[in-house]
Design a protein that fits this description.
- The chain has two helices and 25 strands.
- The longest helix is centred in the first third of the chain and has 12 residues.
- The chain is mainly beta.
- It has an eight-stranded mixed sheet with strand order 7-10-13-16-19-22-24-25, with helices on one face.
- It is about 10% helix and about 30% strand.
Length: about 210
């Protein structure tokens, strides 16, 4: 297909999609259309872009590259795995963020305005580094993680696949966050956190311990 490499399709039409679309425009991409499985949204517009139909349209072959604009980590993983062979997932980095040249970024990941990512960080696939989050040196962030606005990771932190770090939470150096774990908003992590837990508070503790 003789299409511009700056054309892209957005999957998802919620609030997170608005930030993705705004970032794509800052990067001078042309958002061709938005897809969403919510039928009530079809034919409507988000930031001036028409929502043309369900995600299944990605199979048509009319779209060369896409971004999954859905904040929920499990849903993002399901979509990535289901439609992986039908298009190329692109990563986007807002021009008003700082990302050191040594940082590794996997396909489909998004980095929003004000984020700061320091040297030797490794970011997996379909990760969200949200507005004004900071990730210090030598952190490892696995696939499908969501780092919410205002999160602060000190150096050497490891975040397991699918985990959510809630808005304004912080992690001290060299701690490990397990897979598919949720860190509550404003929490401060001072110990390693196991897989599949929800922790809250200062210091952060599993909800069952409260």
């Amino acid at each position: 297909m003789n299409k511009s490499v700056k054309e892209v399709i957005v999957l998802g039409a919620g609030g997170h999609a608005k930030v993705v679309i705004a970032t794509l425009r800052e990067l001078e991409f042309e958002v061709k259309a938005v897809l969403d499985d919510n039928e009530s949204k079809w034919g409507k517009h988000i930031l001036g872009i028409k929502i043309i139909g369900p995600l299944e349209l990605i199979k048509s072959g009319n779209f060369e590259q896409a971004v999954i604009a859905i904040g929920d980590n499990k849903t993002r993983k399901e979509i990535a795995e289901k439609y992986n062979r039908f298009c190329r997932w692109i990563s986007i980095i807002h021009p008003f963020s700082y990302v050191h040249p040594s940082v590794e970024i996997g396909e489909g990941s998004v980095i929003f305005a004000g984020a700061v990512i320091q040297p030797e960080v490794v970011i997996g696939k379909h990760v969200i580094i949200n507005t004004s989050a900071s990730v210090d040196h030598d952190c490892k962030i696995e696939d499908f993680v969501h780092i919410a606005p205002g999160v602060h990771l000190a150096g050497g932190v490891w975040v397991g696949e699918g985990s959510l770090l809630g808005i304004g939470s912080s992690v001290i150096p060299y701690k490990r966050i397990g897979k598919w774990t949720a860190i509550g908003a404003g929490s401060v992590v001072i110990n390693d956190i196991q897989d599949f837990l929800t922790v809250v508070g200062v210091p952060a503790r599993p909800i069952d311990d409260k």
